[in-house]
Amino acid sequence: MKHSVVSLTINGAERQMLVAPGSTLIDVLRESQGLTGTRRGCEQGACGTCTVLVDGKTAMSCMLPVETIEGAHVETIEGLTPPQGLHPIQEAFLQGFATQCGFCTSGMIMVAAALLAKNPNPSREDVVRAISGNICRCTGYEAIIDAILDAAVRIRSAAHAEAA
Amino acid sequence: MEKIDTSFFAKEREAELSVVGESVQRADARGHVTGRTQFYEDVTFPNTLHLKMVRSTRHHALIKGIDTEAAMKVPGVVRILTHKDVPNNWYTILKLIGVGPDDEPVLPEDRVLFMGEQICAVLAETPQAALEAARRVVVDYEDLPPVFDVEAAMTSTPFKKDGTNYFVYEGHNCRRIRFGDVEKGFAEADHVIEHRYESSPIEHAPTETTGCTAKPEGNGRITIYSNTQALYFTLDNMALILGVPFNKLRLVGGTVGGGFGGKVDVIVEPIAALGAMLTNRPVKYAYSRAEEMQVSSPRAAERIYIKDGVMKDGRIIARKITLYVDAGAYCRHSTYGTTKAAAHMPGPYTIPNVHVDAYCVYTNRTPSSAMRGFGVTIGDFALESQMDQIARFLDMDPMELRLLNAYRDGDMKAHRKKVDGAALVEVIQAAARQTGKQLAPRFAKMSSMTREG
């Protein structure tokens, strides 16, 4: 089977790439784009650690044949990270001790980013529901939930300060 | 974060510790939140070969033949490794701390001892080609009767290379503790309470599966990028297996996407490095999720019998424990885990008569190994369940039963070591306080450091 050319906007930059049939988004991100911050966990859509944003919505990049999302906007943890300092979600994870081995962290933060973009003031239940597809085997869920709630406060107060 | 309660043992804290009791940021957290932490799989090399294993479909069988002809015809296949390629095929992980005998082959020779055991390794240009070829390798088996039960294994026909279906501890078939006279204790006790406790194997299921990439360097060395939790076990065992000096191997790692003890075995690295040596190309060997679940070592299943001689007032005067650790097909870290289990018995209680037999037993199940407090965790489950059973039987408060029997500084343990630095009494008192429970005055004023109460 022949390779095909796929165009994506990845972290704001337009990219064209040659992909083998059946290549998944994570293959492309990690192998041809060098964006290794997206982690490969189970390759069967069960752990959520490979979560990225596709057109603003969360997607498990291990389950997504890249040919099916031609033209999409993809955002990864590298795109979320500002050139200087950290994104408020990253700050909240850092200061809230919400990382242990770090392998689920990228996926958790991308899920949090999608949640907070849609719902700036989530309840604890909203956060639990949002991360329900993401597994943390170090079982640091409480700290992660607290960090996402803290990030919501940080983003709201930053927006408030900007408006004032 | 909550501060540590420093009100206990204030005298021992006089060293003016500046970090203990404080919250300190992890050194690796910034890398984690930005996705920049480098796991082994983030380091890639052009021209890498992918390794996939042909695995046993039988629990216990003789290997009558391995036919690789069809597999070698799959486009992209470069080489298939069997035991004949391994310089020193027999090893045991803890060899370098004096554990023996070598009971595990890197790749099996004439038999497989558990389902999923690796048989031969396919090296190919792509993971897909390696998988396809692995499926086409034909293994001719002659089934042998498997044994899955630890007590049955103790008396069934030996299936191990070295004779017995159990690990031999200094000439004995188990780790033993003998203290006082349990039979006399049972005769003098008001009640004898006996129960059996059992656990199943538990898989760590780390989010990052076990894997490594071995890369031949221009200077004749091999660099191995690995997610092992045990870089030096791995380095040492690889050197012995491959028959090369230690300084020909370099391990890069220490960043582990979830380990929990599941990444202290030495399974993927020696074969990947062998493949790299034989092909002079980088070789990547990573478990799929299914392999991680099926063949990586779980926490051992255990079966524990506890028989206690108990007085009406709650004092335990005799405790006899028979404990079986299911090591699965190979020793790995289970011999050490069983020693830990024995060392942990009879729990943190002062009991004058103790008898423990702790067996490390081989069965045709997936080899078990390390996992968070292995050897101790299941033992604790059994011991503390037994304490609750006794409390229920005597209609006593379970905290007070534990305080009555708690070891305190100066007591003699069954291992003939004097207790020093005990804190069980204070921990139970703190737990009672935090749960709003009123202990009887006698127990509320007890201390580990005095005989008061």
From TrEMBL, chain A:
Molecular function per GO: 2 iron, 2 sulfur cluster binding; metal ion binding; oxidoreductase activity
The keyword Secreted appears for this protein: no
Domain 2Fe-2S ferredoxin-type: 4-80
InterPro entries in the record: 2Fe-2S-bd, 2Fe-2S-bd_dom_sf, 2Fe-2S_ferredoxin-like_sf, 2Fe-2S_ferredoxin-type, 2Fe2S_fd_BS, Beta-grasp_dom_sf, Diverse_Oxidoreductases
Cited Pfam families: Fer2, Fer2_2
Swiss-Prot/TrEMBL keywords: 2Fe-2S, Iron, Iron-sulfur, Metal-binding, Oxidoreductase
Alphabetical list of Gene3D superfamilies matching this protein: 3.10.20.30, [2Fe-2S]-binding domain
PANTHER family to which the protein is assigned, alphabetical: OXIDOREDUCTASE WITH IRON-SULFUR SUBUNIT, XANTHINE DEHYDROGENASE IRON-SULFUR-BINDING SUBUNIT XDHC-RELATED
Entry protein name: (2Fe-2S)-binding protein
Source organism of this protein record: Mesorhizobium zhangyense
Automatic annotation (TrEMBL), chain B:
All copies of domain Aldehyde oxidase/xanthine dehydrogenase a/b hammerhead, residue ranges: 34-145
Xref: Pfam families: Ald_Xan_dh_C, MoCoBD_1
Sorted UniProt keywords: Molybdenum, Oxidoreductase
Name of the protein in question: Xanthine dehydrogenase family protein molybdopterin-binding subunit
SUPFAM superfamilies: CO dehydrogenase molybdoprotein N-domain-like, Molybdenum cofactor-binding domain
InterPro entries, A to Z: Ald_Oxase/Xan_DH_a/b, Ald_Oxase/Xan_DH_a/b_sf, Ald_Oxase/xanthine_DH-like, AldOxase/xan_DH_MoCoBD1, AldOxase/xan_DH_Mopterin-bd_sf
Upper lineage: Bacteria, Pseudomonadati, Pseudomonadota, Alphaproteobacteria, Hyphomicrobiales
Origin species: Mesorhizobium zhangyense
GO MF assignments: iron ion binding; oxidoreductase activity
